[in-house]
Amino acid sequence: MRGQSIELGEIPNEKGSQKMDYQDIIYTKEAGVATITFNRPDNRNTISPEMTQNIHKALEDAAKDDEVRVLVITGAGRVFNTGGNVRAMVEQYDQQDEKWKDQLGNEIPLTTLVHRFEKPVIAAINGVAAASGLDLALACDIRIASDRARFAQVFIRRGRIPPSGGTYFLPRLVGIDKACLLIWTGDMIDAKEAERIGLVTMVVPHEDLESATRDLAEKLAKGPPLAIKNAKRALYGGMGIDLESALEHIDPLLRELRETEDYKEGARAFVEKRQPIFKGR
Known about the structure:
By secondary structure, the chain is α/β, with parallel strands linked by helices. The protein is built from 12 helices and 11 strands. The protein has 2 domains: 18-221, 2-enoyl-CoA Hydratase, Chain A, domain 1, CATH 3.90.226; 225-271, Lyase 2-enoyl-coa Hydratase, Chain  A, domain 2 (Orthogonal Bundle), CATH 1.10.12.
């Protein structure tokens, strides 16, 4: 799972742990890593309006905080996230007027906000990820799953299709045929099968999930944040285009990095045979 260890120096000006109170989520920041934890374990971490609003706030805070270099998303209890509360949605849908129904599709999905996030995003999948909860995991850059995790695109069982990115992310991760199978059947798969088909990046023993996620997050947090951000832009921007177009796309990203202190620090550290200290400048 871990492969070769690469040391990347230290995080400058590191602050102590911070925890902010938000309804239905736990939001913490420590050692360059921000963590959003879905915190409705008694309701299978279904997405409430309050949770949605506070995830928006946490994402905005993590994006603006230069000391945050990596974002981790996970769930409290035995479930990662199972999407919206279907019973509550049906009740609201039946009670509201046509104008309200038209507004259902007008909000920016959380998956879009996570996918647009410029820093690395790791999903630590501690249990069941289903429906829009699975879409949220798919929107992350890397998915580390507990061996107890399970996955399902259950929308078809409600006469629906994935509304928040499942039809976009799944084919790119597992191929069109497996995406069709998962979406058309709504079948649940276990962590081992999810890893085999490429839906998750790696699977670890349940008791090791937190430490494995933390190790990777801190490793990335010690890297050069500007280079990692531009690498993320290059990776996603290069999908679906030819090599020549991809090289044209990364050229301004490379030129931008050459003007940074981190670029020069990386070269100096190599020559001086020491670990670099990247400051994000």
